[in-house]
Amino acid sequence: MSVLAARSWSPYAAGILIGLLQIPAFLLINTALGASSSFVTVAASLAGLIDPAMLAIPYFKSHVATAKDWWQVALVAGVALGAFLSVRMAGTARPAMSEIWARVMGLRSFPARLVVAFLGGFVLLLGARIANGCTSGHGLSGLSQLAVSSLIAMGAMFASGIALSAFFKRV
Amino acid sequence: MSVLTAVIIGLAMGVLFGLALEKSRVMEPGFIIGQFQMRNFIMIKVMLSAIATGLVVLAVLNALGMVSLSVKAALVGHMVVGGLLLGVGIVLAGACPGTTLAQIGAGYRDAWAILAGGLAGAFTYGYFQKPIDAALNWSSIGLGNWGKMTLVDLLPGGFPALALIFAALIVAGLMALERWRPWREEMERNDPLAKAGGKARAGRSAYATPAE
Fold this sequence. Notes:
The complex is a heterodimer. Chain A has ten helices and no strands. The radius of gyration of chain A is 18 Å and the shape is globular. The longest helix of chain A is centred in the middle third of the chain and has 24 residues, at 67-90. Chain A has a domain at 1-94. Chain A is mostly helical. By secondary structure, chain B is mostly helical. Chain B is 63% helix and 0% strand. Chain B has helices spanning 3-23, 29-36, 42-63, 76-93, 97-106, 111-127, 129-135, 159-180, 183-190. In chain B, helix 3 (42-63) runs antiparallel to helix 8 and helix 5 runs antiparallel to helix 6 (111-127). Chain B is globular, with a radius of gyration of 20 Å. Chains A and B meet through helix 2, helix 3, helix 4, helix 5 and helix 6 of A and helix 1, helix 2, helix 3, helix 4 and helix 5 of B.
């Protein structure tokens, strides 16, 4: 199991493995790899626990209906499990937050970082749901199908990401 | 397909996805922001390798008639505004939606706040979908719904041929990029687990480093 115990892999090997995951996605689930609609499935389900009327909202209703919706929730849960197994087998460990936050934006306190992380996560998924896809659904799957929608969304993503990170100190 | 079967398949695929995201460090906030600052090219190497592989896989499966493509409609206003927000969110969060989960699995505790914020963001779009969609429908200036358009609609040749051509172009681009920025050097320079004094036990590295 030396491959799994390795501290790191070539980015090309990792990319090829991710690309090959399109085979089961298309052949078994009849969809492409994606991650962000699972956030809708989980958010809608949680909202439905508090107020069942929430599940009548069309967008929520359409995200909790099919096996495909729960396939993607399982996929992202599997991502967490895979990353956990990866660090366990490599014997590596990470701090509570990355050290780069102190360097790039002077964020040293964990609570302050939580605020920025929550805000970032909010904008991230608001944007991904407006664009109907994220770095996986548009970046990987859409571009693998030469989709014009994904070219526009990824162009916009890199443009604003490059512009905003230019205000940060160098990583 | 039953939900249980779909969930088992999803978990198995996700474990492989998560392994690849962690081992390549593309889920590191420093690697993601480093890519946007054009100082670390691991993220684009992973993405383009995955895209080129996907292009070849889908070219073959499509030519064999085994899959039909699953393309998203080009609602231009949505793609532009959604994409711009996505970029802002990625830089503030230091993660994209999929890598948020990889960060949680790898032990970054702040990623739980990204997840919570992400659930709130996804809820917000669903709850306010009507007014948001109305505001982003720019059909009056020709930037409405262009439909499920792909480059196959704009260029000569069918999907399999075009996909293979673009895959070849990406591979050529990656070979040039690798010559300019070898990945091992980028990994050694940027990997937070490789630095002395970190919590990492570096003795089981996949490859020998000068320090070892």
